[in-house]
């Protein structure tokens, strides 16, 4: 099923149960433009969330995450969450909801040998794959797959056979990204695997807070409280997992955003300084040159 508008949950007579029942029966894609949209509580199937423009906020496990262009969020089966769009300019949100049986079939194929699949081709995994529910960058390969999916939808509409083929490939790409996350979680300094996994989930909470609220300059105490980690543990384990301290990671987020604005907008350097959360223009220009080797205005001129 394919929707180009978001449901209005506040509309009189809206049948919420009937709406959500569809997610158990079909793969569903939303590609919608909206300024105002709210869903206070949804228990969903495995789903992929991104935006093509603007931003959308998700509430997951008491944390608030902002999904922006170039990022995506995977939510596991039966995960409670809220979502909202509340922006002056419209946001183009793009979501894929995977029917449980469909996702299980793809995952089973990915982890099983050909011999096992021959003996029992329709066996489904008893335990579904559980992803880290954290913000990730859209890889070039995933971007190509999403572009191909959008092109197919634009040209042919929702043709179930063609769409399912493309969704299978996208799910396989998620597995590859998940393997990278697992490898990163093993870098956490702990002995037990279960402890490494729990610590990594908390570090992902810290990382997502930095991405979502970088312009507010969250301090270590705020990040530590949100992720249930002491400040010293946060700094030490964050660097073990991501290769940078929280402050270094925050600066990188800000500079990446600044570079994007320099390339794609006509915003002045002073306005970019403010919007990216730098204290003053001198500090921004100094940090930008250290990272990119050029002053912001010169960088902008080279990208035209």
From TrEMBL:
SMART domains in alphabetical order: HTH_ARAC
SUPFAM superfamilies in the record: Homeodomain-like, Regulatory protein AraC
Gene3D superfamilies to which the protein is assigned, alphabetical: Homeodomain-like
Pfam families per the UniProt record, alphabetical: HTH_18
Organism the protein comes from: Pedobacter albus
Keyword terms: Cytoplasm, DNA-binding, Transcription, Transcription regulation
Record's protein name: AraC family transcriptional regulator
Domain HTH araC/xylS-type: 204-302
PANTHER family: HTH-TYPE TRANSCRIPTIONAL ACTIVATOR RHAS, HTH-TYPE TRANSCRIPTIONAL ACTIVATOR RHAS-RELATED
PROSITE patterns for the chain: HTH_ARAC_FAMILY_2 (PS01124)
Keyword DNA-binding (UniProt): yes
């Amino acid at each position: 099923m394919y929707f180009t508008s978001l449901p209005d949950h506040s509309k009189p007579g809206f049948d919420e149960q009937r709406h959500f029942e569809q997610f158990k029966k079909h793969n569903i894609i939303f590609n919608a433009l909206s300024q105002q949209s709210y869903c206070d509580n949804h228990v969903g199937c495995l789903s992929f969330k991104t935006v093509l423009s603007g931003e959308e906020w998700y509430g997951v496990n008491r944390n608030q995450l902002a999904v922006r262009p170039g990022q995506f969020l995977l939510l596991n089966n039966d995960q409670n969450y809220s979502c909202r769009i509340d922006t002056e300019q419209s946001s183009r949100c793009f979501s894929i909801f995977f029917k449980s049986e469909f996702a299980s079939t793809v995952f089973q194929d990915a982890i099983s040998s050909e011999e096992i699949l021959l003996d029992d081709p329709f066996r489904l995994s008893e335990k579904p794959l559980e992803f880290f529910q954290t913000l990730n960058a859209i890889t070039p390969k995933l971007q190509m797959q999403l572009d191909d999916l959008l092109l197919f939808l634009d040209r042919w509409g929702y043709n179930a056979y063609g769409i399912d083929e493309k969704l299978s490939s996208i799910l396989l790409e998620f597995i590859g990204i998940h393997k990278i996350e697992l490898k990163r979680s093993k870098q956490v300094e702990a002995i037990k695997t279960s402890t490494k996994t729990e610590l990594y989930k908390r570090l992902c909470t810290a990382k997502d807070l930095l991405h979502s609220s970088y312009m507010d300059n969250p301090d270590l105490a705020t990040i530590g409280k949100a992720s249930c980690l002491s400040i010293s543990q946060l700094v030490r384990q964050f660097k073990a997992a991501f290769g940078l301290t929280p402050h270094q990671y925050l600066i990188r987020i800000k500079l990446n955003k600044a570079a994007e604005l320099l390339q794609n907008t006509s915003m002045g350097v002073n306005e970019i300084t403010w919007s990216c959360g730098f204290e003053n223009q001198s500090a921004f220009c100094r940090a930008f040159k250290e990272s990119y080797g050029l002053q912001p205005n010169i960088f902008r001129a080279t990208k035209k």
